[in-house]
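Here we describe the complex-level prediction in full. Unlike the single-chain runs in Section 2.1, the two entities below were treated as one system.
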Amino acid sequence: MTLAFNLALIAFAVALVAMVVALVAKHRAVEIAATALLAAGAVALTIYMGLRWHAAGRAPFSNMFESLVLFAWTIAAVYLAIRTRVRVTALGAAAALLAALVLAYASAFESDIRPLVPALRSNWLSVHVFTCFLGYGGFAVSALGAVSYLIVRDHGPREVLETIVARTIAFGFLFLTAGIVTGSVWANSAWGTYWSWDPKETWSLVTWLIYAVFLHGRFTRGWRGRVAAWISLVGFAAVLFTYFGVNYLLPSLHSYARQ
Amino acid sequence: MEFLQRLGLTHVFTAGWFLSLLALLAASLCACTFRRYALAMRLHGSARRRALASVLTHVSLLLILVGGVLRATHGQRGVIEFREGDTADCFLADGVRIPLPFLVHLAKFETEFYETEQGTATRPDANAARLLLLWPEKELSMALPVKLSEEQQVALPDEPMPLRVNVLRQVQDFVKDRETGEVRSRSDEPRNPAVQVETVFDGSTNRTWLFANHPDFGAMHGVKAPSFKLVYQIADQAPAPRDIKSWKSTLQVVEGGKVVREQTIEVNAPLAHRGYTFYQSGYNPRDPAWTSLMVVRDPGVLLVYTGFLLMIAGLVVVFYVYPRSGGGRQLPADSEGGPDLASGHGVTRGDALHGDNSRPGGTGS
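The structure predicted for the assembly as a whole is:
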Protein backbone atom coordinates (compact mmCIF):
# COMPACT_ATOMS: atom_id res chain seq x y z
CA MET A 1 0.00 0.00 0.00
CA THR A 2 2.81 2.42 0.94
CA LEU A 3 4.49 1.59 -2.37
CA ALA A 4 1.54 3.05 -4.31
CA PHE A 5 1.71 6.24 -2.20
CA ASN A 6 5.47 6.60 -2.77
CA LEU A 7 5.09 5.88 -6.48
CA ALA A 8 2.47 8.60 -6.76
CA LEU A 9 4.70 11.11 -4.97
CA ILE A 10 7.65 10.24 -7.22
CA ALA A 11 5.45 10.40 -10.34
CA PHE A 12 4.16 13.87 -9.40
CA ALA A 13 7.68 15.12 -8.64
CA VAL A 14 9.14 13.78 -11.92
CA ALA A 15 6.09 15.10 -13.80
CA LEU A 16 6.84 18.53 -12.36
CA VAL A 17 10.45 18.42 -13.61
CA ALA A 18 9.32 17.18 -17.02
CA MET A 19 6.63 19.89 -17.25
CA VAL A 20 9.21 22.58 -16.49
CA VAL A 21 11.53 21.11 -19.14
CA ALA A 22 8.65 21.03 -21.63
CA LEU A 23 7.77 24.61 -20.76
CA VAL A 24 11.30 25.91 -21.17
CA ALA A 25 12.24 23.82 -24.22
CA LYS A 26 8.73 24.08 -25.75
CA HIS A 27 9.02 20.38 -26.44
CA ARG A 28 5.70 18.69 -27.08
CA ALA A 29 6.83 15.08 -26.59
CA VAL A 30 8.23 15.93 -23.16
CA GLU A 31 4.93 17.56 -22.20
CA ILE A 32 3.06 14.42 -23.24
CA ALA A 33 5.44 12.29 -21.17
CA ALA A 34 4.95 14.66 -18.21
CA THR A 35 1.17 14.43 -18.55
CA ALA A 36 1.44 10.64 -18.68
CA LEU A 37 3.48 10.73 -15.47
CA LEU A 38 0.89 12.92 -13.80
CA ALA A 39 -1.81 10.49 -14.90
CA ALA A 40 0.29 7.57 -13.63
CA GLY A 41 0.58 9.33 -10.27
CA ALA A 42 -3.19 9.79 -10.16
CA VAL A 43 -3.68 6.10 -10.99
CA ALA A 44 -1.21 5.11 -8.24
CA LEU A 45 -3.14 7.29 -5.78
CA THR A 46 -6.40 5.72 -6.93
CA ILE A 47 -4.93 2.28 -6.21
CA TYR A 48 -3.62 3.51 -2.85
CA MET A 49 -7.02 4.84 -1.82
CA GLY A 50 -8.70 1.66 -3.09
CA LEU A 51 -6.38 -0.55 -1.04
CA ARG A 52 -6.84 1.65 2.01
CA TRP A 53 -10.61 1.56 1.54
CA HIS A 54 -10.47 -2.23 1.36
CA ALA A 55 -8.20 -2.53 4.42
CA ALA A 56 -10.23 -0.12 6.55
CA GLY A 57 -13.63 -1.34 5.37
CA ARG A 58 -14.76 2.27 4.88
CA ALA A 59 -13.98 5.26 2.69
CA PRO A 60 -10.46 6.58 3.39
CA PHE A 61 -11.63 10.16 4.00
CA SER A 62 -11.67 10.46 7.76
CA ASN A 63 -8.66 12.50 8.86
CA MET A 64 -6.09 15.02 7.69
CA PHE A 65 -3.78 12.45 6.09
CA GLU A 66 -6.55 10.79 4.12
CA SER A 67 -8.09 14.08 3.04
CA LEU A 68 -4.71 15.38 1.82
CA VAL A 69 -4.26 12.27 -0.31
CA LEU A 70 -7.72 12.87 -1.77
CA PHE A 71 -6.90 16.56 -2.30
CA ALA A 72 -3.73 15.68 -4.27
CA TRP A 73 -5.79 13.24 -6.33
CA THR A 74 -8.49 15.80 -7.15
CA ILE A 75 -5.89 18.42 -8.17
CA ALA A 76 -4.33 15.95 -10.60
CA ALA A 77 -7.73 14.73 -11.81
CA VAL A 78 -9.12 18.21 -12.48
CA TYR A 79 -5.97 19.22 -14.36
CA LEU A 80 -6.01 16.01 -16.43
CA ALA A 81 -9.66 16.61 -17.29
CA ILE A 82 -8.73 20.06 -18.58
CA ARG A 83 -5.76 18.58 -20.44
CA THR A 84 -8.11 16.42 -22.51
CA ARG A 85 -9.44 19.69 -23.99
CA VAL A 86 -6.51 22.04 -24.01
CA ARG A 87 -2.77 22.02 -23.36
CA VAL A 88 -1.43 24.61 -20.94
CA THR A 89 1.99 23.39 -19.86
CA ALA A 90 2.46 26.11 -17.25
CA LEU A 91 -0.76 25.02 -15.58
CA GLY A 92 0.39 21.40 -15.76
CA ALA A 93 3.64 22.30 -14.02
CA ALA A 94 1.75 24.21 -11.32
CA ALA A 95 -0.71 21.32 -10.82
CA ALA A 96 2.14 18.78 -10.58
CA LEU A 97 3.91 21.03 -8.06
CA LEU A 98 0.83 21.49 -5.89
CA ALA A 99 -0.13 17.79 -6.03
CA ALA A 100 3.43 16.79 -5.05
CA LEU A 101 3.52 19.35 -2.22
CA VAL A 102 0.16 18.24 -0.86
CA LEU A 103 1.22 14.60 -0.95
CA ALA A 104 4.56 15.40 0.70
CA TYR A 105 2.69 17.32 3.39
CA ALA A 106 0.37 14.32 3.85
CA SER A 107 3.37 12.11 4.57
CA ALA A 108 4.07 14.24 7.67
CA PHE A 109 0.81 13.01 9.25
CA GLU A 110 0.03 9.75 10.98
CA SER A 111 -1.09 7.30 8.30
CA ASP A 112 -2.32 4.50 10.58
CA ILE A 113 -5.85 3.34 9.88
CA ARG A 114 -7.89 4.27 12.93
CA PRO A 115 -11.41 3.12 13.77
CA LEU A 116 -14.09 5.72 13.14
CA VAL A 117 -15.78 7.59 15.96
CA PRO A 118 -19.56 6.94 16.04
CA ALA A 119 -20.45 10.24 14.34
CA LEU A 120 -18.35 9.39 11.27
CA ARG A 121 -19.81 5.92 10.81
CA SER A 122 -22.11 6.82 7.96
CA ASN A 123 -22.35 6.43 4.21
CA TRP A 124 -22.51 10.21 4.05
CA LEU A 125 -18.81 10.32 4.95
CA SER A 126 -17.67 9.26 1.49
CA VAL A 127 -20.23 11.39 -0.39
CA HIS A 128 -19.70 14.53 1.70
CA VAL A 129 -15.89 14.48 1.74
CA PHE A 130 -15.56 13.42 -1.89
CA THR A 131 -17.84 16.18 -3.19
CA CYS A 132 -16.12 18.80 -1.01
CA PHE A 133 -12.68 17.79 -2.23
CA LEU A 134 -13.72 17.66 -5.86
CA GLY A 135 -14.75 21.27 -5.28
CA TYR A 136 -11.45 22.05 -3.56
CA GLY A 137 -9.60 20.44 -6.48
CA GLY A 138 -11.46 22.66 -8.91
CA PHE A 139 -10.71 25.77 -6.84
CA ALA A 140 -7.04 24.78 -6.49
CA VAL A 141 -6.60 24.44 -10.25
CA SER A 142 -8.51 27.69 -10.68
CA ALA A 143 -6.09 29.45 -8.32
CA LEU A 144 -3.13 27.95 -10.21
CA GLY A 145 -4.69 29.23 -13.42
CA ALA A 146 -5.14 32.66 -11.83
CA VAL A 147 -1.48 32.78 -10.76
CA SER A 148 -0.41 31.69 -14.25
CA TYR A 149 -2.69 34.37 -15.70
CA LEU A 150 -1.07 37.06 -13.57
CA ILE A 151 2.42 35.89 -14.61
CA VAL A 152 1.93 35.10 -18.30
CA ARG A 153 2.19 38.11 -20.60
CA ASP A 154 1.02 36.68 -23.96
CA HIS A 155 -2.54 37.63 -24.81
CA GLY A 156 -3.60 34.26 -26.23
CA PRO A 157 -2.71 32.03 -23.30
CA ARG A 158 -4.10 34.63 -20.90
CA GLU A 159 -7.53 34.41 -22.50
CA VAL A 160 -7.54 30.64 -22.26
CA LEU A 161 -6.27 30.74 -18.68
CA GLU A 162 -9.06 33.17 -17.89
CA THR A 163 -11.56 30.67 -19.30
CA ILE A 164 -10.01 27.84 -17.30
CA VAL A 165 -10.22 29.93 -14.11
CA ALA A 166 -13.93 30.56 -14.69
CA ARG A 167 -14.78 26.98 -15.65
CA THR A 168 -12.91 25.39 -12.79
CA ILE A 169 -14.65 27.80 -10.42
CA ALA A 170 -18.04 26.77 -11.86
CA PHE A 171 -17.04 23.12 -11.38
CA GLY A 172 -15.75 23.79 -7.87
CA PHE A 173 -18.84 25.80 -6.98
CA LEU A 174 -21.16 22.98 -8.02
CA PHE A 175 -19.25 20.44 -5.96
CA LEU A 176 -18.74 22.74 -2.97
CA THR A 177 -22.50 23.28 -3.01
CA ALA A 178 -23.00 19.52 -3.16
CA GLY A 179 -20.49 19.13 -0.31
CA ILE A 180 -22.29 21.65 1.89
CA VAL A 181 -25.66 20.09 1.07
CA THR A 182 -24.52 16.52 1.81
CA GLY A 183 -22.81 17.74 4.98
CA SER A 184 -26.05 19.41 6.07
CA VAL A 185 -28.14 16.33 5.41
CA TRP A 186 -25.58 14.21 7.26
CA ALA A 187 -25.50 16.61 10.22
CA ASN A 188 -29.28 16.47 10.37
CA SER A 189 -29.25 12.68 10.52
CA ALA A 190 -26.51 12.60 13.15
CA TRP A 191 -27.26 15.61 15.37
CA GLY A 192 -30.71 16.76 14.41
CA THR A 193 -29.62 20.03 12.86
CA TYR A 194 -28.61 20.73 9.28
CA TRP A 195 -26.83 23.96 10.16
CA SER A 196 -25.30 24.98 13.47
CA TRP A 197 -22.90 27.79 12.50
CA ASP A 198 -19.99 25.53 13.29
CA PRO A 199 -16.73 27.28 12.16
CA LYS A 200 -16.26 24.78 9.32
CA GLU A 201 -19.82 25.40 8.14
CA THR A 202 -19.50 29.15 8.48
CA TRP A 203 -16.22 29.30 6.59
CA SER A 204 -17.46 26.99 3.87
CA LEU A 205 -20.37 29.42 3.47
CA VAL A 206 -17.93 32.35 3.31
CA THR A 207 -16.00 30.46 0.59
CA TRP A 208 -19.24 29.70 -1.23
CA LEU A 209 -20.27 33.37 -1.11
CA ILE A 210 -16.91 34.57 -2.47
CA TYR A 211 -17.18 32.23 -5.45
CA ALA A 212 -20.84 33.16 -5.86
CA VAL A 213 -19.71 36.78 -6.15
CA PHE A 214 -17.18 35.69 -8.78
CA LEU A 215 -19.80 33.82 -10.82
CA HIS A 216 -22.30 36.67 -10.63
CA GLY A 217 -19.62 39.16 -11.65
CA ARG A 218 -18.58 36.93 -14.49
CA PHE A 219 -22.10 36.15 -15.69
CA THR A 220 -23.74 39.51 -15.24
CA ARG A 221 -20.99 42.13 -15.21
CA GLY A 222 -18.45 40.45 -17.44
CA TRP A 223 -15.69 40.58 -14.81
CA ARG A 224 -12.53 39.38 -16.46
CA GLY A 225 -8.80 39.80 -16.38
CA ARG A 226 -6.93 40.68 -13.23
CA VAL A 227 -10.07 41.28 -11.14
CA ALA A 228 -11.34 37.77 -11.87
CA ALA A 229 -7.90 36.30 -11.17
CA TRP A 230 -7.64 38.08 -7.83
CA ILE A 231 -11.13 37.02 -6.74
CA SER A 232 -10.18 33.46 -7.61
CA LEU A 233 -7.12 33.77 -5.37
CA VAL A 234 -9.15 35.31 -2.53
CA GLY A 235 -11.62 32.43 -2.90
CA PHE A 236 -8.84 29.88 -2.70
CA ALA A 237 -7.42 31.58 0.39
CA ALA A 238 -10.88 31.06 1.94
CA VAL A 239 -10.75 27.40 0.84
CA LEU A 240 -7.39 26.98 2.55
CA PHE A 241 -8.67 28.61 5.72
CA THR A 242 -11.79 26.44 5.67
CA TYR A 243 -9.62 23.35 5.19
CA PHE A 244 -6.59 24.05 7.42
CA GLY A 245 -7.25 27.21 9.41
CA VAL A 246 -10.52 26.07 10.93
CA ASN A 247 -9.01 22.68 11.84
CA TYR A 248 -6.13 24.20 13.76
CA LEU A 249 -7.37 27.56 14.97
CA LEU A 250 -11.05 27.15 15.79
CA PRO A 251 -12.88 24.58 17.90
CA SER A 252 -15.17 22.70 15.54
CA LEU A 253 -17.44 19.72 15.06
CA HIS A 254 -14.87 18.76 12.43
CA SER A 255 -12.04 18.49 15.00
CA TYR A 256 -11.19 14.92 13.90
CA ALA A 257 -9.99 16.45 10.63
CA ARG A 258 -6.88 17.90 12.29
CA GLN A 259 -5.47 14.50 13.25
CA MET B 1 -17.89 42.12 27.81
CA GLU B 2 -21.28 43.77 28.31
CA PHE B 3 -20.45 46.08 25.42
CA LEU B 4 -19.75 43.08 23.18
CA GLN B 5 -22.98 41.43 24.31
CA ARG B 6 -25.00 44.54 23.50
CA LEU B 7 -23.53 44.58 20.02
CA GLY B 8 -24.41 40.93 19.68
CA LEU B 9 -20.79 39.97 19.11
CA THR B 10 -20.88 37.16 21.62
CA HIS B 11 -23.81 35.50 19.87
CA VAL B 12 -23.45 36.74 16.29
CA PHE B 13 -25.65 34.19 14.56
CA THR B 14 -28.67 34.86 16.74
CA ALA B 15 -28.10 38.61 17.10
CA GLY B 16 -30.70 41.01 15.76
CA TRP B 17 -28.36 42.75 13.33
CA PHE B 18 -27.29 39.42 11.82
CA LEU B 19 -30.87 38.19 11.45
CA SER B 20 -31.71 41.56 9.87
CA LEU B 21 -28.93 41.01 7.36
CA LEU B 22 -30.39 37.58 6.55
CA ALA B 23 -33.81 39.20 6.09
CA LEU B 24 -32.21 41.77 3.78
CA LEU B 25 -30.60 38.93 1.83
CA ALA B 26 -34.01 37.25 1.49
CA ALA B 27 -35.60 40.51 0.26
CA SER B 28 -32.79 41.02 -2.23
CA LEU B 29 -33.13 37.43 -3.42
CA CYS B 30 -36.87 37.90 -3.94
CA ALA B 31 -36.31 41.00 -6.06
CA CYS B 32 -33.55 39.34 -8.11
CA THR B 33 -35.59 36.21 -8.62
CA PHE B 34 -38.64 38.11 -9.92
CA ARG B 35 -36.45 40.14 -12.24
CA ARG B 36 -34.61 37.06 -13.45
CA TYR B 37 -37.91 35.29 -14.07
CA ALA B 38 -39.31 38.21 -16.05
CA LEU B 39 -36.16 38.37 -18.16
CA ALA B 40 -36.10 34.61 -18.68
CA MET B 41 -39.62 34.62 -20.09
CA ARG B 42 -38.47 36.92 -22.86
CA LEU B 43 -35.88 34.38 -24.02
CA HIS B 44 -36.34 31.28 -26.13
CA GLY B 45 -34.88 27.81 -26.42
CA SER B 46 -31.88 26.82 -24.37
CA ALA B 47 -31.25 30.41 -23.26
CA ARG B 48 -34.67 30.42 -21.58
CA ARG B 49 -34.10 27.02 -20.00
CA ARG B 50 -30.73 28.15 -18.68
CA ALA B 51 -32.24 31.36 -17.35
CA LEU B 52 -35.07 29.44 -15.67
CA ALA B 53 -32.54 27.09 -14.09
CA SER B 54 -30.74 30.15 -12.78
CA VAL B 55 -34.06 31.34 -11.32
CA LEU B 56 -34.40 27.91 -9.73
CA THR B 57 -31.08 28.22 -7.88
CA HIS B 58 -32.26 31.53 -6.41
CA VAL B 59 -35.67 30.14 -5.50
CA SER B 60 -33.89 27.24 -3.79
CA LEU B 61 -32.03 29.70 -1.56
CA LEU B 62 -35.32 31.31 -0.62
CA LEU B 63 -36.80 27.91 0.23
CA ILE B 64 -33.82 27.15 2.47
CA LEU B 65 -34.21 30.50 4.24
CA VAL B 66 -37.97 29.99 4.69
CA GLY B 67 -37.26 26.48 6.04
CA GLY B 68 -34.82 28.01 8.51
CA VAL B 69 -37.41 30.57 9.64
CA LEU B 70 -39.99 27.80 10.14
CA ARG B 71 -37.52 25.88 12.27
CA ALA B 72 -36.80 28.96 14.36
CA THR B 73 -40.45 29.92 14.85
CA HIS B 74 -42.29 26.59 14.92
CA GLY B 75 -39.56 24.06 15.64
CA GLN B 76 -38.86 22.38 18.95
CA ARG B 77 -35.60 21.04 20.25
CA GLY B 78 -34.79 19.44 23.56
CA VAL B 79 -33.45 16.40 25.37
CA ILE B 80 -34.67 13.31 27.12
CA GLU B 81 -32.40 11.85 29.76
CA PHE B 82 -33.28 8.42 31.06
CA ARG B 83 -32.02 5.00 32.03
CA GLU B 84 -32.82 1.55 30.71
CA GLY B 85 -36.41 0.64 31.55
CA ASP B 86 -37.58 4.27 31.92
CA THR B 87 -40.44 5.81 29.95
CA ALA B 88 -40.62 9.47 28.96
CA ASP B 89 -43.79 11.45 28.22
CA CYS B 90 -42.02 14.77 27.62
CA PHE B 91 -38.69 16.35 26.83
CA LEU B 92 -36.81 19.32 28.24
CA ALA B 93 -36.17 22.40 26.11
CA ASP B 94 -34.20 25.13 27.89
CA GLY B 95 -35.49 23.85 31.20
CA VAL B 96 -39.13 23.78 30.06
CA ARG B 97 -41.02 20.46 29.98
CA ILE B 98 -42.66 19.93 26.62
CA PRO B 99 -45.16 17.05 26.49
CA LEU B 100 -44.95 14.43 23.75
CA PRO B 101 -48.16 13.13 22.10
CA PHE B 102 -46.93 9.59 22.82
CA LEU B 103 -44.65 7.76 25.26
CA VAL B 104 -41.06 6.75 24.55
CA HIS B 105 -39.71 3.74 26.42
CA LEU B 106 -35.99 2.94 26.56
CA ALA B 107 -35.97 -0.84 26.34
CA LYS B 108 -32.21 -1.17 26.04
CA PHE B 109 -29.08 0.95 25.85
CA GLU B 110 -25.66 -0.36 25.04
CA THR B 111 -22.24 0.96 24.12
CA GLU B 112 -20.54 -1.02 21.39
CA PHE B 113 -16.74 -1.14 21.21
CA TYR B 114 -14.34 -1.99 18.44
CA GLU B 115 -12.63 -5.33 18.84
CA THR B 116 -9.17 -5.00 20.39
CA GLU B 117 -6.29 -7.44 20.58
CA GLN B 118 -6.62 -9.26 23.87
CA GLY B 119 -3.91 -8.95 26.48
CA THR B 120 -1.76 -6.38 24.72
CA ALA B 121 -1.99 -3.72 27.36
CA THR B 122 -3.98 -5.26 30.13
CA ARG B 123 -1.04 -6.68 32.05
CA PRO B 124 2.45 -5.34 32.49
CA ASP B 125 5.22 -7.44 31.04
CA ALA B 126 8.97 -7.28 31.09
CA ASN B 127 9.06 -5.31 27.84
CA ALA B 128 6.74 -2.64 29.22
CA ALA B 129 9.05 -1.96 32.20
CA ARG B 130 11.71 0.73 32.03
CA LEU B 131 14.07 2.80 34.06
CA LEU B 132 13.64 6.53 33.73
CA LEU B 133 16.84 8.50 34.13
CA LEU B 134 16.19 12.12 35.12
CA TRP B 135 18.74 14.89 35.53
CA PRO B 136 16.93 18.26 35.60
CA GLU B 137 20.11 20.38 35.72
CA LYS B 138 21.29 18.81 32.48
CA GLU B 139 17.75 18.83 31.03
CA LEU B 140 18.16 15.08 30.66
CA SER B 141 15.25 12.66 30.63
CA MET B 142 15.72 9.27 29.04
CA ALA B 143 14.28 5.79 29.30
CA LEU B 144 16.52 2.75 29.75
CA PRO B 145 15.32 -0.80 29.15
CA VAL B 146 15.29 -3.19 32.09
CA LYS B 147 18.01 -5.71 31.19
CA LEU B 148 18.87 -8.20 33.89
CA SER B 149 22.60 -8.57 34.63
CA GLU B 150 23.58 -6.62 31.57
CA GLU B 151 25.49 -3.42 32.19
CA GLN B 152 24.31 -0.34 30.30
CA GLN B 153 26.55 2.69 29.85
CA VAL B 154 24.95 6.09 29.46
CA ALA B 155 27.03 8.96 28.12
CA LEU B 156 26.20 12.17 29.96
CA PRO B 157 26.66 15.68 28.66
CA ASP B 158 29.66 17.53 30.14
CA GLU B 159 30.76 14.44 32.07
CA PRO B 160 33.97 12.62 31.10
CA MET B 161 32.82 9.24 32.41
CA PRO B 162 29.57 7.45 31.53
CA LEU B 163 26.96 6.38 34.05
CA ARG B 164 26.95 2.59 34.34
CA VAL B 165 23.62 0.96 35.20
CA ASN B 166 23.15 -2.68 36.01
CA VAL B 167 19.81 -4.29 36.91
CA LEU B 168 20.60 -7.05 39.40
CA ARG B 169 17.13 -8.41 40.22
CA GLN B 170 13.52 -7.89 39.20
CA VAL B 171 10.53 -9.06 41.26
CA GLN B 172 6.80 -8.76 40.64
CA ASP B 173 5.60 -8.65 44.25
CA PHE B 174 8.38 -7.35 46.49
CA VAL B 175 8.58 -8.58 50.06
CA LYS B 176 11.51 -8.57 52.48
CA ASP B 177 11.91 -11.14 55.22
CA ARG B 178 12.17 -9.21 58.49
CA GLU B 179 14.48 -11.71 60.13
CA THR B 180 16.81 -12.70 57.35
CA GLY B 181 16.51 -9.53 55.23
CA GLU B 182 16.08 -11.72 52.18
CA VAL B 183 14.07 -10.26 49.27
CA ARG B 184 11.65 -12.48 47.40
CA SER B 185 8.49 -12.25 45.33
CA ARG B 186 5.35 -13.01 47.31
CA SER B 187 3.41 -13.92 44.16
CA ASP B 188 3.56 -13.78 40.39
CA GLU B 189 1.05 -10.94 40.34
CA PRO B 190 2.55 -7.48 39.71
CA ARG B 191 1.34 -6.11 43.06
CA ASN B 192 4.57 -4.47 44.11
CA PRO B 193 6.99 -4.56 41.18
CA ALA B 194 10.57 -3.67 42.04
CA VAL B 195 14.09 -3.85 40.63
CA GLN B 196 17.45 -3.87 42.34
CA VAL B 197 19.79 -1.53 40.48
CA GLU B 198 23.49 -0.89 40.78
CA THR B 199 24.99 2.34 39.42
CA VAL B 200 28.60 3.33 39.04
CA PHE B 201 29.27 7.03 38.56
CA ASP B 202 31.99 9.46 39.49
CA GLY B 203 33.97 6.75 41.30
CA SER B 204 31.06 5.78 43.47
CA THR B 205 29.05 2.54 43.41
CA ASN B 206 25.47 2.62 44.64
CA ARG B 207 23.00 -0.25 44.99
CA THR B 208 19.31 0.04 45.89
CA TRP B 209 15.80 -1.20 45.27
CA LEU B 210 13.41 0.88 43.12
CA PHE B 211 9.65 0.43 43.38
CA ALA B 212 7.24 1.06 40.53
CA ASN B 213 4.35 1.82 42.88
CA HIS B 214 6.43 4.06 45.14
CA PRO B 215 8.73 6.03 42.89
CA ASP B 216 10.12 8.22 45.69
CA PHE B 217 10.81 5.42 48.11
CA GLY B 218 14.48 4.44 47.85
CA ALA B 219 14.82 6.40 44.61
CA MET B 220 18.37 6.29 43.49
CA HIS B 221 20.24 9.54 43.53
CA GLY B 222 23.81 10.14 42.51
CA VAL B 223 26.28 11.04 45.20
CA LYS B 224 27.33 14.26 43.53
CA ALA B 225 24.62 16.87 44.01
CA PRO B 226 22.84 18.09 42.03
CA SER B 227 22.73 14.78 40.32
CA PHE B 228 20.60 12.19 38.56
CA LYS B 229 17.57 10.25 39.70
CA LEU B 230 16.41 6.82 38.56
CA VAL B 231 12.75 5.81 38.58
CA TYR B 232 11.33 2.38 37.88
CA GLN B 233 8.22 2.46 35.71
CA ILE B 234 5.95 -0.22 34.36
CA ALA B 235 2.99 -0.02 32.01
CA ASP B 236 -0.36 0.96 33.42
CA GLN B 237 -2.10 -2.12 34.73
CA ALA B 238 -5.53 -0.79 33.87
CA PRO B 239 -7.19 -2.31 30.81
CA ALA B 240 -6.32 -0.52 27.61
CA PRO B 241 -9.01 2.01 26.67
CA ARG B 242 -11.21 0.70 23.90
CA ASP B 243 -12.50 2.77 21.01
CA ILE B 244 -16.24 3.30 21.05
CA LYS B 245 -17.91 2.06 17.88
CA SER B 246 -21.47 3.03 18.54
CA TRP B 247 -24.16 3.78 21.10
CA LYS B 248 -27.42 1.96 20.56
CA SER B 249 -30.76 2.73 22.18
CA THR B 250 -33.69 0.44 21.57
CA LEU B 251 -36.76 2.66 21.75
CA GLN B 252 -40.40 1.68 21.94
CA VAL B 253 -43.10 4.17 21.00
CA VAL B 254 -46.19 3.60 23.14
CA GLU B 255 -49.62 4.92 22.15
CA GLY B 256 -52.86 3.99 23.91
CA GLY B 257 -50.97 1.53 26.11
CA LYS B 258 -49.64 -0.38 23.13
CA VAL B 259 -46.18 -0.51 21.61
CA VAL B 260 -46.79 0.80 18.11
CA ARG B 261 -43.19 0.97 17.06
CA GLU B 262 -39.77 -0.34 18.10
CA GLN B 263 -36.47 0.75 16.65
CA THR B 264 -32.82 0.70 17.67
CA ILE B 265 -31.28 4.09 17.03
CA GLU B 266 -27.61 5.02 16.62
CA VAL B 267 -25.77 8.29 16.08
CA ASN B 268 -26.44 8.31 12.36
CA ALA B 269 -29.76 6.47 12.47
CA PRO B 270 -32.48 8.38 14.36
CA LEU B 271 -36.13 7.43 14.91
CA ALA B 272 -38.77 9.66 13.35
CA HIS B 273 -42.36 9.42 14.58
CA ARG B 274 -45.26 11.81 14.03
CA GLY B 275 -43.06 14.82 13.30
CA TYR B 276 -40.63 14.19 16.17
CA THR B 277 -37.17 12.80 15.54
CA PHE B 278 -35.13 11.14 18.30
CA TYR B 279 -31.35 11.23 18.00
CA GLN B 280 -28.81 9.25 19.99
CA SER B 281 -26.99 11.97 21.88
CA GLY B 282 -25.20 11.32 25.17
CA TYR B 283 -23.86 8.61 27.44
CA ASN B 284 -22.22 8.33 30.83
CA PRO B 285 -19.19 6.05 31.08
CA ARG B 286 -19.86 5.63 34.83
CA ASP B 287 -23.50 4.66 34.33
CA PRO B 288 -23.76 2.30 31.35
CA ALA B 289 -27.58 2.17 31.53
CA TRP B 290 -28.00 5.98 31.18
CA THR B 291 -28.38 7.82 27.92
CA SER B 292 -29.70 11.07 26.54
CA LEU B 293 -31.62 11.62 23.34
CA MET B 294 -31.99 14.79 21.33
CA VAL B 295 -35.61 15.42 20.37
CA VAL B 296 -36.26 17.61 17.35
CA ARG B 297 -39.41 18.80 15.69
CA ASP B 298 -38.58 20.74 12.55
CA PRO B 299 -41.51 21.60 10.26
CA GLY B 300 -39.14 23.40 7.85
CA VAL B 301 -36.79 20.56 7.06
CA LEU B 302 -38.70 19.39 3.96
CA LEU B 303 -38.51 22.88 2.48
CA VAL B 304 -34.80 23.01 3.19
CA TYR B 305 -34.19 19.63 1.56
CA THR B 306 -36.30 20.65 -1.44
CA GLY B 307 -34.15 23.79 -1.66
CA PHE B 308 -31.00 21.67 -1.57
CA LEU B 309 -32.22 19.47 -4.44
CA LEU B 310 -33.37 22.40 -6.56
CA MET B 311 -30.09 24.22 -6.07
CA ILE B 312 -27.97 21.27 -7.21
CA ALA B 313 -30.31 20.63 -10.14
CA GLY B 314 -30.29 24.32 -11.10
CA LEU B 315 -26.50 24.56 -11.01
CA VAL B 316 -26.08 21.40 -13.11
CA VAL B 317 -28.45 22.80 -15.72
CA VAL B 318 -26.84 26.27 -15.75
CA PHE B 319 -23.26 25.02 -15.95
CA TYR B 320 -23.48 21.77 -17.88
CA VAL B 321 -26.84 21.09 -19.54
CA TYR B 322 -27.33 24.50 -21.15
CA PRO B 323 -24.01 26.26 -20.64
CA ARG B 324 -23.58 29.74 -22.05
CA SER B 325 -22.10 29.63 -25.49
CA GLY B 326 -20.64 33.10 -24.99
CA GLY B 327 -20.97 33.90 -28.67
CA GLY B 328 -20.03 30.41 -29.74
CA ARG B 329 -16.50 30.55 -28.44
CA GLN B 330 -15.29 27.35 -26.84
CA LEU B 331 -12.08 26.02 -25.46
CA PRO B 332 -10.16 24.68 -28.42
CA ALA B 333 -10.99 21.08 -29.17
CA ASP B 334 -7.85 19.26 -30.14
CA SER B 335 -7.79 15.76 -31.46
CA GLU B 336 -4.03 15.58 -31.06
CA GLY B 337 -3.87 16.60 -27.47
CA GLY B 338 -4.34 20.32 -27.75
CA PRO B 339 -2.27 23.28 -28.75
CA ASP B 340 0.26 24.51 -26.21
CA LEU B 341 -1.36 27.60 -24.89
CA ALA B 342 1.39 28.46 -22.47
CA SER B 343 3.71 29.15 -25.34
CA GLY B 344 1.07 31.11 -27.16
CA HIS B 345 0.60 28.76 -30.06
CA GLY B 346 -2.67 27.52 -31.42
CA VAL B 347 -4.87 29.63 -29.20
CA THR B 348 -8.55 29.49 -29.85
CA ARG B 349 -10.50 31.93 -27.82
CA GLY B 350 -13.07 30.04 -25.91
CA ASP B 351 -15.22 30.83 -22.98
CA ALA B 352 -18.50 29.27 -22.15
CA LEU B 353 -18.75 31.56 -19.17
CA HIS B 354 -18.16 34.93 -20.73
CA GLY B 355 -20.48 37.55 -19.42
CA ASP B 356 -22.70 38.84 -22.14
CA ASN B 357 -24.70 41.84 -21.09
CA SER B 358 -25.23 42.98 -24.63
CA ARG B 359 -27.75 40.28 -25.37
CA PRO B 360 -31.35 41.12 -24.60
CA GLY B 361 -32.79 39.27 -21.68
CA GLY B 362 -29.50 38.41 -20.05
CA THR B 363 -30.02 36.86 -16.65
CA GLY B 364 -28.32 39.68 -14.87
CA SER B 365 -29.54 40.56 -11.45
